[in-house]
Amino acid sequence: MEQHNIQDHLIRQKELIKYRLKKLNDKQNEIKSKSLVMRENTMKKYKEMQRVLEEDCRITLSLLEIEETATVHALDDLIDTNCVLLKDIELQLNQGLMDNGLKPVERVITMFDNRVQELLRTTDPGLVKLDEAKADQLLGLTNNLLLFIRSQIPIAKRLLKTYSTEVILDPTTAHPKLIISSAGDCATFTDVWQDVPEDKGRFDTTLNVLSLQSWDSGRHYWEIDVSEKLYWELGLTYPSISRKGQKEDCWLGRHADSWCLEYFDGDYNAWHGGTAHPLPISTCFRRIGILCSFYGGLVTFLGVDSMTPLYSFCTGTFTDALHLALCPGHDLQGTNSKPIKICQS
């Protein structure tokens, strides 16, 4: 190829790359713009819900306060009536029973007896009541609203559930000291070395097991039950993860082929590429969620109990299919004997 032809060819290649870069930058700006709009619209809806609830709360409390004001005022009137008669009696006592000699004793006693009896009849505290039945009804309606809201949130969990992907564990990959349930949803450590067939895909040192399925596109979400466990590891891995020997390449997250969340005795660490990322979290979650998005090269771990984001790996682009990977850990003298289980709902 002549020199000028080579130059023309390279110039065309250069222009192709420049055009692709422009498209990539445009796409990046488009995603940022769309994401901003989605966040702003979502925030507006939450603020609107907050305003609606605050206004409803204001109205409800106002009605309760109005009734309180009315009943307190009614009691004030009754108290005043009692105070008037009390003063009259005290005045009569100070003046003497004969009221300067103009009234006989019996007449004075009878007059005050009648007034006192009438007062006791008309100022019975039981006559003044709050509408507690209506108040209880309001409280019940409020509680029902609270229960409904709680049933609908976290909204993020309802969204993630739409990405739920069926998965079962592959017993041919499980370390011989792991018992895999017949349903393929549970891994339990045992001190007894299981009589299992030799398999090139079986882990022989680390207590790992992989999913039978693998995924190379789309978005996927799983929840793992780790309740009552002192130690566990879970994550995603390429099928190329080492399976044999003592080297750390067999451990989840200790190389570039896998992403892992590890829990041990209250401490969380996210692992990838041999680097640990300690997490400032003290909550002992009963369920851990894993979200994987091939569109964004994303692996996110969440504490499902409160939908708390724990750690996210933004890998850019996955280079192979991914398997779910679990490690229930040793039983640690019975303190970690519970299984690690995939939640199917």
Question: Which secondary structure elements does this structure contain, and how are they paired or packed?
Answer:
Layout: H1 3-95, H2 105-122, H3 132-152, H4 155-161, E1 178-180, E2 186-189, E3 209-210, E4 219-225, E5 231-237, E6 258-264, E7 267-272, E8 275-279, E9 287-293, E10 298-303, E11 308-314, E12 323-327, E13 340-343
Antiparallel strand pairs: 1-2, 2-13, 3-12, 4-9, 4-13, 5-6, 5-12, 6-7, 7-8, 9-10, 10-11
Q: Give the averaged pLDDT, no decimals.
A: 90
Characterize the main sheet: 7 strands, antiparallel
Class derived from helix and strand content: alpha+beta
Anisotropy-based shape: elongated
The strands making up the biggest β-sheet line up spatially as: 1-2-13-4-9-10-11
The CATH architecture of the largest domain can be given as Sandwich
Number of helices: 4
At the fold tier of CATH, the topology name of the largest domain is Jelly Rolls
Low-confidence stretches: none
Question: What's the CATH class label of the largest domain?
Answer: Mainly Beta
Distance between the termini: 63 Å
The helix content is: 40-55%
N-to-C SSE string, H for helix and E for strand? HHHHEEEEEEEEEEEEE
Content of β-strand: 15-25%
**The CATH homologous superfamily of the largest domain:** SPRY domain
Count all strands and give the number: 13
Number of domains: 2
Q: From the alpha-carbon coordinates, what is the Rg to the nearest angstrom?
A: 38 Å
